[in-house]
Amino acid sequence: MNWNEFRKTENAGYLFIILGILNWSGNFVAARGLAGTIDPATLNLLRWLLATLVFLPFGIRSFWAERALVAKLWKELTAIAICGISLYDTLVFIAGHTSEALNMSLISTMSPLLTALVAQYFMREKLKPSMYVGIAVSTLGVALLVTDGSLGRLLDMRFAQGDLLILCTAMMSAVYNTVVKKVAGKISQTTLLMSCCLFGTLYIIPLYLWETGGRIVIPEFTYGLVVSLIYLSVFASILCYLFWNMAVEVLGASKASLFYYTLPPASAIVAWFVIHEPVNVNQVVSGMIILAGILFALYGGSPKFMKQKANNYG
Q1: Which of 18, 98, 172, 220 has most Cβ atoms within 10 angstroms of its Cβ?
Q2: How far apart are CA 100 and CA 222, in angstroms?
Q3: Which residues are CB-neighbours of 294 under 8 A, at least 6 positions away?
Q4: How far apart are CA 18 and CA 66, in angstroms?
Q5: Within 13 Å, how many C-alpha atoms sit on residue 47's CB side?
Q6: Which stretch of 11-15, 122-126, 173-177, 242-246 has the lowest confidence by average pLDDT?
Q7: Which pLDDT tens digit goes with each residue over 122-176?
Q8: How far apart are CA 234 and CA 91, in angstroms?
Q9: φ/ψ bin of 148: left (φ > 0), alpha (ψ from -120 to 50), beta (otherwise)
Q10: Beta strands of 165-235 (E only): which ranges?
């Protein structure tokens, strides 16, 4: 089996999604390190401007060759750029000023459910009941994780204006995954990513000017900022989006979005390696519940290879 054949298989889809999550998981660690040192739209613009410059030598030829398709799909590509790049991180940061971390984490878990609903009703993806059961189980795992095992904290939740912004980001994530699936078979992955870089960077500029009051403000490029920008641009942007988009093309929007639940435990593991944050029992148990929910959603409660083995012996 050659690469072109393998990349269209389900196994390849799971490999792509794992690589995408691994490249993305350090995003929260980097963001935590930059908190209070640089404004969100400025960081987002620098991140995607550098990503565009890095990917330009690899993507511009394909982009130019498929420019007619890009022009034809400009509405879809605009939706992808705005929902996945330009607005998403900025809204999350703004929401953080009024929304509590618990609220943000739990509301964000609506993304897979919203993606499943959008994919079912607008993309006609056929979803089994086990998909929704798995989403519920994984949501429980995330709730246990972010409440440190004390679900009673959910009764003390208070909702603020920022919570509406987080709900908007969950909806944008659903739109992003669904539209990526729609256009993935029409243009190459290289052109799709190049379009994301170019369109996304372009649409960040108005946010940046709004943030700076219409002035060009150059931040102080410290060693930490430069290293973080390199990571965010290459790993959490170019590689993450490339692998994620390839996974959505193969698995579909609903299945791919399920792995969004693995971000909290994956981020905890990265934080353990990078900044030596301890991993406790609750994090391990929550991660196992999240994984069980994903497996149930994908395979109806039992791993695929076990079903195949039962069929072989039946």
Answers
A1: 172
A2: 29
A3: 134, 138, 258, 259, 261, 262
A4: 29
A5: 27
A6: 122-126
A7: 666 677 788 888 888 887 877 777 676 776 766 665 666 666 777 788 888 889 9
A8: 22
A9: left
A10: none
